Amino acid sequence: TFTVLPAYNLPSAPLTCWLARQLATDVRSTPDAWVLLSQFEFHTGTVKNWERFLYQRDTDEIITRRDARISQTPAAPASSNGQWMTAQPYDWIARAGPRIDLALDDRFDAGRCPVVKVSFFDSVGSGSLL
């Protein structure tokens, strides 16, 4: 099934264009790999990280925690309960820990010389962003 969103539901034209280009690629043809270190508490369970060929996993030795709490959009009164599909009225848009390991999908790296860029919040233990 293919759904077309009306223009007023699109987040932004540049973002929609980028998303369309990303969806038209696979691990061997995409120009980039990325991960959004995050955590979202849905009614059906927890979703941790949005990943595209770059992965972060906790291990027995390397443990991260959710960090950088933000309030959601839309907030009340735009939504009936002040939340957007989730069990909490906020999301966590970062992970924190003394060490965070990332792994690039081997298929992405095949025959290329990848460049890795890391963007991060420079606020240790802040707990929330206002």
Give structural notes:
The protein is of the alpha+beta class. 12% of the residues lie in helices and 28% in strands. It is built from two helices and six strands; from the N terminus they run αββββββα. The protein has helices at 13-23, 106-109, and strands at residues 34-42, 45-52, 54-56, 65-71, 90-96, 102-104. The strands form three sheets. A two-stranded antiparallel sheet has the order 1-2. Strands 3-6 form a two-stranded antiparallel sheet. Strand 1 and strand 2 (45-52) form a beta hairpin. The radius of gyration is 17 Å and the shape is globular. The termini are far apart. The model has no long low-confidence stretch (mean pLDDT 77).
Throw out a few tags for this protein.
about 130 residues; alpha+beta; two-stranded antiparallel ribbon; 6 strands
Please give the structural blueprint:
Elements: H1 13-23, E1 34-42, E2 45-52, E3 54-56, E4 65-71, E5 90-96, E6 102-104, H2 106-109
Antiparallel strand pairs: 1-2, 3-6, 4-5
